Amino acid sequence: MKIKKILSIQKKITDKNIIVNGWVKNRRGSKNVFFISLNDGSTIENLQIVCESKSINEEVIKQITTGSCLSVSGLLKTSDGSKQTVEVLAEKILILGKADADKYPLQPKKHSLEFLRENAHLRFRTNTFSSVFRIRHSLTFAIHNFFNLNGFTSLHTPIITSADAEGAGEMFKVTNYDLNNIPLGENGEVDYSKDFFGQKTSLTVSGQLEAELGALGLGKVYTFGPTFRAENSNTSRHLAEFWMIEPEVAFADLKENIDLAEKMLKYCINYCLDNNKLDLEYLNMRLKNEESQLKKELRSESSLLERLKFVVNNEFKRLSYTEAIKILLHSKANKKKRFRFQISGFGDDLQSEHERYLVEKEFKRPVVITDYPKEIKAFYMRLNEDEKTVRAMDILFPEIGEIVGGSQREERLKILQKRMKEMNIDEKHLWWYLDTRKFGSCEHSGFGLGFERLVMFVTGMKNIRDVIPFPRTPKNAEF
Ligand code: 4AD
Ligand code: MG
Question: Which residues pair with 71 in a beta bridge?
């Protein structure tokens, strides 16, 4: 039986023989009787195993160390202890896998997150990481559920792509050339015609352009897959390989796009509040403890659980880029030169310090900024009547900053071609994208949600490397 099941049905099934498998978290006790805390990953809670020396062989007892893997058969009974309602009185213990007590890295004490990152192959066994990854699973499930309930078709867009027009950052090249002997053309440049795909290919930075093709036939689609960016940004919010959710909806304008994103985010957070209570309570406590070590001004004003509940119960603040710039320009922080990047006026790109100011100081809630200057956004965003701004939207979250980026798409062929020309994007590579504007084009919109940023928000983890099983960052692709 799984420990989650055992602990959920509790008293109803006591005095029953069961078999339970798991890893030893801890052991304590005396020569005659000792106690094992066993965990199997189904829940954060451990099951207490009681071993009496009269029933378990001494040789076996010696091998039961922290980290070892056991199969325990015994009697499930009501516990006399105050910490647990049930326990298992062991009748037989099989050591499935020993763990050398001196060498096992995860001792029963608090380890730093950095240390656990270096031991990412074992960190699934800790309370923090097992909670994070159960929540990551719940969020994945909630996302698919949300779109399915709302009539979307899931679309697997390609990971290898020949389109590099998104402008979302440097791309990783895909080739099967022998790197020591790359065929060159007459001009001395790489001759891709002899490469596997007969053209230059890369790992995708976004599934959006292909998702748009799907939406203009299937109506409502979403893609949820890995995306890759070779930017050398070594921050706590960037990965070189991350997962993105990108819905694309025909006949939807920017407002409907924002409504969809807000509804989806709230659905996912609510799903975790309902289904990951113990994990969230643990992470809530963990964050409180962690922050209690910090100086007062660095602590969050609210706890993790308060934050999650606040977000699902309140409307996101919506305002235009122009309004946001005005607020920032006149803010004390800007006047007193407290921003690293001063705001001077319309046209400035918003840095994460500005985004966090708006969310955490000015509005104290998630903020949606719309209608950015066309110069700082991608070519496919719909041009506004003012011809200066585009129908873009970014959603900014407390503690995270940008979590969603999206827009209404430019569906008018002539204007799209003009924008591509202005941004030096060769039409030849995107003939298929332009075709959709030639044949039955229509108003449509979509967005991209950075999945790890959502996991960060829900778990309260402050480094993106701690919410993906095996992070890929500059100079790091271990495991
Ligand atoms: O804002 P971005 O670059 O938007 C796009 O790629 C659009 N094609 C999306 C669309 O409209 N379909 O990325 C979307 C989101 C960001 O808001 C952020 O949450 C996340 O992806 N993101 C990253 N997450 C982790 N590591 C990185 N390097 C990220 N870059 C973007
Ligand atoms: Mg963005």
Answer: 21, 94
CA 407/CA 249 separation, integer angstroms: 11
CA of 394 to the centre of ligand 2 (A): 7
Among protein residues, the one whose CA lies closest to atom 20 of ligand 1: 450
Instruction: Confirm if 268 and 307 have CB atoms less than 8 A apart.
Output: no
What CA–CA distance (Å, rounded) separates 219 from 208?
A: 14
* Closest residue by Cα to residue 400 from 237, 266, 272: 237
Residue with the smallest CA separation from ligand 1 atom 5 is 448
What is the set of domains in the chain, with CATH numbers? 3-109 (2.40.50.140), 125-170+205-466 (3.30.930.10)
CA distance from start to end of the chain: 31
The pLDDT-based confidence of 82 (bands split at 50, 70, 90) is confident
pLDDT of residue 11: 62
Give tens-digit pLDDT for 286-331: 999 999 999 988 888 899 999 999 999 999 999 999 999 999 999 9
Q: Model pTM?
A: 0.96
- The predicted-structure confidence for 266-279, as pLDDT tens digits, reads as follows 999 999 999 999 99
* Ligand 1: residue whose CA is nearest its atom 26: 238
Q: Which atom of ligand 1 is nearest to the CA of 208?
A: 12
Q: Is the dihedral of CA 78, 83, 84, 90 positive or negative?
A: negative
Which residue owns the Cα nearest ligand 1 atom 31?
Answer: 450
What would the pLDDT profile of 425-445 be if each residue is shown by its tens digit? 999 989 999 999 999 999 999
Measured between alpha carbons, how far is residue 353 from residues 115, 338, 462 in Å? 28, 10, 16
* Pocket lining for ligand 1, CB < 6 angstroms: 166, 168, 206, 208, 229, 238-239, 242, 244, 246, 402-406, 446-448, 450, 452-453
Residue 446 near residue 249 (C-beta atoms within 8 A) = yes
Encoded amino acid at 3, one letter: I
Nearest CA to ligand 1 atom 21: 450
Mutate to test the pocket of ligand 1, among 244, 257, 457 (most ligand atoms within 8 A of CB): 244
| Ligand 2 ion local residues (Cβ < 5 A) | 405
The residues facing 38 across adjacent strands are: 24, 47
Q: How confident is the model at residue 168 (pLDDT cuts 50, 70, 90)?
A: low
